[in-house]
Amino acid sequence: xxxxxxxxxxxxxxxxxxxxxxxxxxxxxxxxxxxxxxxxxxxxxxxxxxxxxxxxxxxxxxxxxxxxxxxxxxxxxxxxxxxxxxxxxxxxxxxxxxxxxxxxxxxxxxxxxxxxxxxxxxxxxxxxxxxxxxxxxxxxxxxxxxxxxxxxxxxxxxxxxxxxxxxxxxxxxxxxxxxxxxxxxxxxxxxxxxxxxxxxxxxxxxxxxxxxxxxxxxxxxxxxxxxxxxxxxxxxxxxxxxxxxxxxxxxxxxxxxxxxxxxxxxxxxxxxxxxxxxxxxxxxxxxxxxxxxxxxxxxxxxxxxxxxxxxxxxxxxxxxxxxxxxxxxxxxxxxxxxxxxxxxxxxxxxxxxxxxxxxxxxxxxxxxxxxxxxxxxxxxxxxxxxxxxxxxxxxxxxxxxxxxxxxxxxxxxxxxxxxxxxxxxxxxxxxxxxxxxxxxxxxxxxxxxxxxxxxxxxxxxxxxxxxxxxxxxxxxxxxxxxxxxxxxxxxxxxxxxxxxxxxxxxxxxxxxxxxxxxxxxxxxxxxxxx
Length: 530
What we know:
Number of helices: 12
Radius of gyration: 23 Å
Strand content: 25-35%
Shape: globular
Helix content: 10-25%
């Protein structure tokens, strides 16, 4: 991108009255404030002329952390769901995982889009456009490379405004990677709640929901052989009778209760973590049966978020009883049972849409603040969450989709949504959201694998996964059965940890594929990842 003076031309349209238009310099901190009286917003847009050189690389942050977010070239396009039959989209609520239900996809080469921030990179020079405030509505960035125009839009259609409307709050800067991202977070006044890297174990990517007292005890025995005091031992999904029923664990699986499990983890010297999905409930759950009035309705129907667990619905955070329930079970998990960290998942379910008085993004921010307040001094690992609302609110946050037990899943699954399970896409997301770690929170790139059983990744693919996670993440967990490790695997495990703790001078070269460079043990090293 040639460095030049750029102008942001904006237009605020309402259902009554003439549009409000204007122009401001597109540089540094940019605030566009428009006085409106008893107005209903129709469209709020801005454009910046931005001719693209053929060598430029374009990044758009996807709607939530699972959304595939690579760098594109000028011929790239953001893939939607047009290729899927309508009955498949509806049958599995596939369009509910991302922004498909509220963003219009043009399905044309050279048109890419995302939410909250984007950048244009030419070599080591970055041109960053970042939102400073999403409360008025998500900031949607759409780039048309053929026209050389970046369109910026507020996700606020239908909202009522009476007073000064914050049409746009942006940070626009050009420079090195660290210069532009440090400047953006300084302008937002956002700092991470912790700078501590977290190592440990999660039960999910081996046993999945097939966990109980015996499996946790067995995995804890293995953890004692390799983990260190203060590491995390996390019990993931599968401890509950149904998603949404959080007050009592499954008595068949955990007859001694989860306080007993947390105590055992602490006795072993580790921090105890537990998975929950606080704003959703699955079909067949007790909560759904007893409190159907707790469901979030849209057009008079419960809002279904996807196909996990046979289908699951959003809970309505406007209902005081729902908020009280969230506070109740988090208090029980953290204070009665004694867990130190909660992995809070499927958080996008709290805010699939807004109202005429609250934007979709403002609702998501409010939901995150409900969780922060309820968890008090205990730590949160956010997951399945739009990322900007999580900035400075959670200690750790997933920055990509779930890894799989193979490289990129089946051809059929590759045709589905951008939030699907994929090791390849998880690595991509970790690489291109690396700037968040140490600025917004400590990024969780998901687990790595060393085992050979119940895993189809090749030796080379496992190396790519653990190298990216160790060098670019702020949390490094495995789901391997540690008590089954050979001496060779134990040595490899120690190496991965050492890499996370002691590698320096980490850089990314993404001009031709993705190559990581770093210094370790006094030697310069590199590895092609993608």
